[in-house]
Amino acid sequence: MLSLVPCSPRLARADEPTPAQKVEKRVTDGLLTPLADYEANISRFSRARMPPRVRRVRVTQATPTVDAQGRPFMAFALDVKWGEEWHENDVVGCAYTNSGELFVKRGDDFRPAQILMGKPADPVANVCKAAPRA
């Protein structure tokens, strides 16, 4: 029996999201929404910083970068607006495109994004850093 295998390259459909759009959705669903829910329960009398009026996600690179373990990731930034002006890069981090893991930068280290919701998390080594070129 003869079996035919298509040899033509797969064309991207117009409605297929780009990698940046996928990362933006992942950050919105996995970080912004839970963060808003968490902050809704913070007392206005708390000493914690008051939540901003608005947050937005910016994916800061067009194509994924690969880390030392060969895992692709893309960098993102969260911008905030308290009054009338936007403050860029309030939070910066990266999203791994295959696993969906989210990390945010605190100091010089990257930690799981759950740290923003008050959950303790240790720094994770070798994430969100591009692999050295050979």
Keywords:
single chain, 134 residues, alpha+beta, Nuclear Transport Factor 2, Chain: A, six-stranded antiparallel sheet, 16% helix, disordered N terminus
Your description of this structure?
The protein has 134 residues and is of the alpha+beta class. It has a domain at 19-42 and 51-117: Roll (Nuclear Transport Factor 2, Chain: A), CATH 3.10.450. Helices cover 16% and strands 28% of the residues. The protein is built from one helix and six strands; from the N terminus they run αββββββ. Strands 1, 2, 3, 4, 5 and 6 form a six-stranded antiparallel sheet that branches.
Total count of helical runs of at least 4 residues: 1
Model regions low in confidence, pLDDT < 50 over at least 5 residues: 1-9
What structural category do the secondary elements indicate? alpha+beta
Indicate the overall shape.
globular
Largest sheet: 6 strands, antiparallel
Total DSSP E strands: 6
Quickly describe the structure.
With 134 residues, the protein is α+β, with helices and mostly antiparallel strands.
Topology of helices and strands:
Elements: H1 19-40, E1 54-59, E2 65-66, E3 72-81, E4 86-96, E5 102-106, E6 109-112
Antiparallel strand pairs: 1-3, 2-3, 3-4, 4-5, 5-6
